[in-house]
Amino acid sequence: MSVRGKLIAVLGDEDTVTGFLLGGIGELDKHRKPNFLVVGKETSVAEIEEAFRSFLNREDIGIILISQCVADLIRHAVEEHRRPLPAVLEIPSKDHPYDPSKDSVLRRARGLFSPEDLR
C-alpha cells in the first residue's frame, strides 16, 4: 500500500500559479476543489480569504505558497495561522518583489533567536 504525501497549494497572480501548475502541483480533492487560486483584478478579498482558509482546513495540503502581495490583502488571516502544518510561505511575484519585513513567518522566526545565535 503506497502512502500519499501532502500537496502544495498556491494563491497568486496568473503567472505565478501557472508556473507552479506547469511544474505539476495541480490537484483536485475528492470534492473536485482545486489546490490553487488565480488572483486577478476581479477577485474579491473575501474570495481570497475563503480559499486560504479552505486550504488551511484541508488535510491533504502540507504547504501553502502565497504571493506576498496577495498575503497583504488578507494579512490578518495569514498572521492568525499558528499551526506548523500546513506551512504558509510568502513568495515574490513577477510584479511585486519580496519584502522580508512583511513576512509574518520570518518575523516570528526572528523572535525565536537572539542575534548571537545567528552568528
TrEMBL record:
It holds the Pfam family ATP-synt_F. GO terms for molecular function: proton-transporting ATPase activity, rotational mechanism. The keyword DNA damage does not apply. Gene3D superfamilies: ATPase, V1 complex, subunit F. Keywords: Hydrogen ion transport, Ion transport, Transport. InterPro entries: ATPase_V1-cplx_f_g_su (IPR008218), ATPase_V1-cplx_fsu_euk (IPR005772), ATPase_V1_fsu_sf (IPR036906). One of its GO terms (cellular component) is proton-transporting V-type ATPase, V1 domain. V-ATPase is a heteromultimeric enzyme made up of two complexes: the ATP-hydrolytic V1 complex and the proton translocation V0 complex. Subunit of the V1 complex of vacuolar(H+)-ATPase (V-ATPase), a multisubunit enzyme composed of a peripheral complex (V1) that hydrolyzes ATP and a membrane integral complex (V0) that translocates protons. V-ATPase is responsible for acidifying and maintaining the pH of intracellular compartments and in some cell types, is targeted to the plasma membrane, where it is responsible for acidifying the extracellular environment. Belongs to the V-ATPase F subunit family. This is V-type proton ATPase subunit F.
